Amino acid sequence: MKKGIVLSILAIITLVIYANCEKNKSKVYPVEGTAPPIHIKDPATSVRWNSVGILDDSIAKKIAVEQTNSRRTPTNTLEVWAQLRNRTDYPLQVEARVQFFDANKAPIEGPTSWKRIYLPANSIATYSMFSTRIDVSYYYIEIREGK
Fold first, then answer.
1. pLDDT the model gives residue 34
2. Nearest Cα residue to 125 out of 143, 110, 147
3. What burial class does residue 130 get, using C-beta atoms within 10 Å of its C-beta: 0-12 exposed, 13-18 middle, 19+ buried?
4. Please, which residues have CB within 8 angstroms of residue 98's CB and are 6 or more apart in sequence?
5. Predicted local confidence at residue 40, as pLDDT
6. Which of 43-47, 56-60, 142-146: highest mean pLDDT?
7. Which of 44, 72, 127, 139 could disulfide-link to 96, CB 3.0 to 4.6 Å?
């Protein structure tokens, strides 16, 4: 009899735990961090907010985007940056710019002017830029070969 009661209690506990797990599966958690860069000529490409797009075939395999992120400044504007790695044995020049978007993903600034970044062989460099408005919610950084 005791064994039957214990088994019944264990079965109820298992069902409660399973129900909570299934309930939590349906929750949509916000994606944190950044997505890896993707070449924009990929047919499945769309704007991936808060990330980097590589515009040129010529540099797509020569550089890597190690990380990208943003933070609010003391004046509540947005600072964004991307850390770039030169994967070659020779120096590279790339250019980057950023466009800022509001909470509805509508463009509200930019794009900024192209900024040249010098990458010594097998090294990293950081591109950074500040918004001028405080109502910025999203950004998109574009990178092309230096001209």
1. 46
2. 143
3. middle
4. 80, 110, 111, 112, 129, 139, 140, 141, 142
5. 56
6. 142-146
7. 127
What's the Cα-to-Cα distance from 38 to each of 21, 29, 60, 102, rounded to whole Å? 34, 23, 9, 23
Architecture of 38-145 per CATH? Answer: Sandwich (2.60)
Residue-wise pLDDT tens digits, 81-105: 999 999 999 999 999 999 999 999 9
Residue 80 pairs in a beta bridge with 70, 129
pLDDT band at 17 (very low <50, low <70, confident <90, very high): low
- Cα→Cα distances 24→10, 28, 63, Å: 21, 9, 39
Domain boundaries, the chain: 38-145
Asked if 86 and 56 count as a contact pair (C-beta separation under 8 A), the reply is no
Sheet holding 78-86, edge to edge: 63-72, 78-86, 124-130
pLDDT at residue 107, as a whole number: 93
